[in-house]
Amino acid sequence: MDIKPFTSVSADQYELLLMADPSRSMIASYVNRAFKFATEIDNQLVGVILLLPTHPQTLEIVNLAVSKCHQNHGIGTKLLQFAATWAQERHYHTLEIATGITSLGPYIFTKSRALELPALSKTSLAAIIHKPFGKINSF
Fold first, then answer.
1. Structural domain containing residue 62
2. What is the pLDDT of residues 7-41, one digit of tens each?
3. Does 136 reside within a domain?
4. E strands, the chain, where?
């Protein structure tokens, strides 16, 4: 499984982005500024991850999606590991993930990989996860 950068978003890639973020306007707000990566199995798109510089030495994973038929096979974990390695090689010090509090699947996915999750306030729209570089647990 290779993870490769891409610049133009194909229709298939956009469909995956919508799985993780159903707001087309939100996707439009970050897609052109983000580092974009996709992974395929047997020439079939199975996952995408978008990394957005938000502060000096900080990247945010703004979109991470794996096709439904390929979920629970370690692809999301490999994309997270790739993001951590890619960021570290480029001297980023912090990798953040934000997930809406209504997104239970992504919340459980990131929480189960031992990423730190702060308490959610009643007014919070997103949970922000700060993960020091290191091992990401895989199940």
1. 2-131
2. 999 999 999 999 988 889 999 999 999 999 999 99
3. no
4. 2-6, 35-41, 44-55, 58-66, 94-100, 126-131
Tokens of 75: 């692809």
Q: What are phi and psi of 89, to 5 degrees?
A: -65, -25
Contact between 80 and 111 under an 8 Å Cβ cutoff? The reply is no
The whole model's pTM is what?
0.76
137 domain-assigned: no
Number of domains in the chain: 1
Tell me, yes or no, whether 36 lies in a domain: yes
Within a domain: residue 120?
Answer: yes
Yes or no: say if 32 and 17 are a contact pair by the CB < 8 Å rule.
no
> Phi/psi class of residue 42: alpha, beta or left (left: φ > 0; alpha: ψ in -120 to 50)?
left
Q: What angle do CA 130, 18, 97 make, to 5 degrees?
A: 0
Listed residue (39, 49, 29) closest to 106, CA to CA? 49
**Dihedral-angle region of residue 94 (phi above 0 means left; psi in -120 to 50 means alpha; beta otherwise):** beta
Q: Does 107 or 50 have the greater pLDDT score?
A: 50
Cα 92 from chain centroid (whole Å)? 16
CATH of the domain at 41: 3.40.630.30
